[in-house]
Amino acid sequence: DVKVTQSSRYLVKRTGEKVFLECVQDMDHENMFWYRQDPGLGLRLIYFSYDVKMKEKGDIPEGYSVSREKKERFSLILESASTNQTSMYLCASSLTGGNDSPLHFGNGTRLTVT
Amino acid sequence: TQLLEQSPQFLSIQEGENLTVYCNSSSVFSSLQWYRQEPGEGPVLLVTVVTGGEVKKLKRLTFQFGDARKDSSLHITAAQPGDTGLYLCAGGFKTIFGAGTRLFVKA
């Protein structure tokens, strides 16, 4: 069974801090994704990666960056956290980009920026 | 830009009732996926529909993909408290998600 592990369930950070959210998958998946989830807005894609060192912007990349140095690990970086980045962050992976390749999600990191 | 609109946003029903939730778009999708998310967990895939007009059944859940591949529906028969959760439809190259339908089934 695919396991996607996010390093923290809850994080509280101060405005202006640099924040790292880590995600690891154990099934050699090609694609990895970072979403944020806010009430009434659903899941919005921040960035995704289809290979090591490759990344593509999603719908809301502003204020975020990502790093994928190894296939199994995809990091989301908030360069200077702001209160509007308080949200639930979900990492996902998929084997390929095809129709039959579902996303497997981690349990999320709830980030609060004060 | 592809968008997925889900309705209703919230649904609170009694155990045993039937319900349908909808996922609509003005864009054509090659496939749509339905996920269910429970509190404190990430979404979990329920089904992928690929062919226009396709109907898939998963126990008491029936999923339909519109003929034009622009919409989909999820019908639950005889809902149970264990069906409570957030139901999300998703699709597209970047796997965009709708805002979801939050379902509460009261015992």
Globally, the shape of chain B reads: globular
Mean pLDDT of chain B: 93
> Judging from the principal axes of the Cα atoms, what is the shape of chain A?
globular
Note the beta-strand portion of chain B. over 45%
Helix content of chain B: under 10%
Question: What is the ordering of alpha helices and beta strands of chain B?
Answer: EEEEEEEEEEE
Highlighted features:
heterodimer; A: 114 residues; mainly beta; seven-stranded mixed beta sheet; four-stranded antiparallel beta sheet; B: 107 residues; 11 strands; 52% strand; globular
What topology does this entry show?
The complex is a heterodimer of chains A (114) and B (107).
Chain A: E1 4-6, E2 10-13, E3 19-25, E4 31-38, E5 42-51, E6 54-57, E7 64-70, E8 73-78, E9 87-94, E10 104-105, E11 109-113
Parallel strand pairs in A: 2-11
Antiparallel strand pairs in A: 1-3, 3-8, 4-5, 4-9, 5-6, 7-8, 9-10, 9-11
Chain B: E1 5-7, E2 10-14, E3 19-24, E4 32-37, E5 44-49, E6 55-58, E7 61-65, E8 71-76, E9 85-91, E10 96-97, E11 101-106
Q: Describe it for me?
A:
The complex is a heterodimer of chains A (114) and B (107). With 114 residues, chain A is an all-beta fold. Chain A is built from no helices and eleven strands. Chain A has strands at residues 4-6, 10-13, 19-25, 31-38, 42-51, 54-57, 64-70, 73-78, 87-94, 104-105, 109-113. Chain B contains no helices and eleven strands. In chain B, the strands form two sheets. In chain B, strands 2, 4, 5, 9, 10 and 11 form a six-stranded mixed beta sheet that branches. A five-stranded antiparallel beta sheet of chain B has the order 1-3-8-7-6, with no helix packed on it. Chain B is mainly β and 107 residues long. Chain B is globular. The A-B interface holds A 4, 33, 35, 40-45, 48, 56, 58-59, 90, 92, 94, 97, 99-100, 102-108 and B 6, 9, 30-31, 33, 35, 40-45, 48, 50, 88, 90, 93-100.
